[in-house]
Amino acid sequence: MSKVATRFAPSPTGALHIGGVRTALFNWLFSKNQKGTFHLRIEDTDKERSKDEHKIQIIKSLKWLGIEHDGKEYIQSTKIKDHVNVANKLLKNGNAYKCYCSTEEIEEQKKRARQKKLPYIYNRKWRDIPESEAPKDIKPVIRFKSKIDGSTILKDLVQGDVEIENNTIEDFIILRNDGTPTYNLSATVDDHQMNMTHIIRGDDHKINTFKQMQIYLAMNWDLPKFAHIPLIHTIEGKKLSKRDNASTLDDYSKIGIMPNALRNYLLRLGWSFEDKEIFTLDESIKHFNLEGIGKSPSKLDMSRILSMNEHYIKNIDENELYNHLVEYCEIYKEKIKQTKEVKIKPSLSFLKNKAKTLEDIYNNAKYIISDDVKFEAEDLKLVDEKAKKIIEEFNNTLTSLESLNKENLEPIVNELIKKYETNFKGVGQPLRVALTGSKFGPGLYDIVISLGKEEVKKRLESKILA
Q1: Contact assessment for residue 10 and residue 42, using Cβ atoms and an 8 Å cutoff
Q2: Residue 178 carries which DSSP code?
Q3: 3-state DSSP helix/strand/coil % of the chain, to nearest 5
Q4: Is 203 in contact with 231 (CB distance < 8 Å)?
Q5: What's the CA dihedral at 198, 199, 203, 209 to 10 degrees?
Q6: What is Dmax (Cα atoms) for the chain?
Q7: Which end of the chain has fewer surrounding CB within 10 Å, N or C?
Q8: Is the pTM of this model over 0.70?
């Protein structure tokens, strides 16, 4: 048998959908597991909606997730001539015919089907009418002559044997009346020319597979193996659409979900291996198989994605975590100055505490990243006359300290609590507001130590608190 070859074939008409990302991942993992190749085909025949920026975005998104294709991208629009040639061969060998039905006729047939509450199937009017009877003023479409008798069995590698009555597959159009090929023709010719051995895609393509198998057989081409993956649904059990908030890869990267966490989550979405949850990239490749894919739709669970991301944040090497944070901030927030590295890196141990996303870490670290403290009007109300005295005394006491650590900061805070007859919150909250601009955030001692004596004094002496 020839070497395994799979493909992912998105249309560059918008951002990459999360269902497409999982399909790409499964194709890529299957190929890598089988020591085969994985290819990217850009199906850009919809000239109106296809954009180069979407193609670039698709490639970038897959790369971000660790999925890289072999060889150059296969661009469908450059192969139109080949698709048309195959349509003409099918016409020549009696497997296709010209259909001269007008738009009105087709609409009338569809209307009747709706009235009878039946699925529309073209009535095959022109299937056996000789060419000599064709009207001269109508440009025909070319339809594939589908089988009418018997049934066809698809040996699906995920769903098992799927049988369909042949008469339920209409004589589908392969060339439009403007001479352009349709999806089923183009995809079949491309898959054949690319020597694809396995077609792994969403199970909404099942009916297309039956149509495409007929083209393969009519052309005497070797059939690839087919696997149809159940779709991804929302947590409510509805089909996930592009209108859903968590439907594209960008929706995840902009809140700070890390690529490894998302890839691990998507791997486990509808696929399982023993009772293992966390997979390294190498383990994913080693264990992936089509047998582990379930037959029912999977539900996209945001809380599960966040807890997977939290696991990675907690367990990743902190140097790597810092690099992820820098990259994330540069794209979605603000550039982190290189000089801040010495303060942020040692502070990651507490900045990542309870953080589920890189955005959470950014929010916790904002007081270090930004030199200018932005004060919330509500929080400033906490800094009354008494609070100002506490801040001033704390600042004065710091002058005598050689270094800052919890052991020498704690007695200072305790002394202030006692002197001003308050509690830890009474001292800690005004200091936190003065240093970070907010009453929320990391612990007081962590904030003071991470900023360093010089920066703490500078902030506590700021005019805002004067």
Answers
A1: yes
A2: T
A3: 50, 10, 40
A4: yes
A5: -110
A6: 107
A7: N
A8: yes
> What whole-number distance in Å separates Cα of residue 145 and Cα of residue 151?
15
Strand pairing class (5-8; 37-42): parallel
Interatomic CA distance for residues 232 and 156, integer angstroms: 19
* Rounded-to-integer distance, Cα 94 and Cα 218, Å: 9
Of 319, 402, 33, nearest in space to 200 by CA: 33
Dist. CA 211–CA 172, nearest whole Å: 8
Q: 225 with 291: CB under 8 angstroms?
A: no
Rg (C-alpha) for the chain, rounded Å, is 31
Collapse the DSSP code of 143 into the 3-class scheme (helix H, G, I; strand E, B; otherwise coil) and give the result. strand
At residue 185, what is the residue type? L
Nearest to 240 by CA among 9, 17, 27: 17
Per-residue pLDDT reduced to its tens digit, 325-376: 999 999 999 999 999 999 999 999 999 999 999 999 999 999 999 988 888 7
pLDDT tens-digit readout, 106-127? 899 899 989 998 888 899 999 9
- How many Cβ atoms from other residues are within 10 Å of residue 317's Cβ? 8
Query: With contact defined as beta carbons under 8 Å apart, do 390 and 430 qualify?
Result: yes
pLDDT, tens only, 183-218:
999 999 999 999 999 999 999 999 999 999 999 999
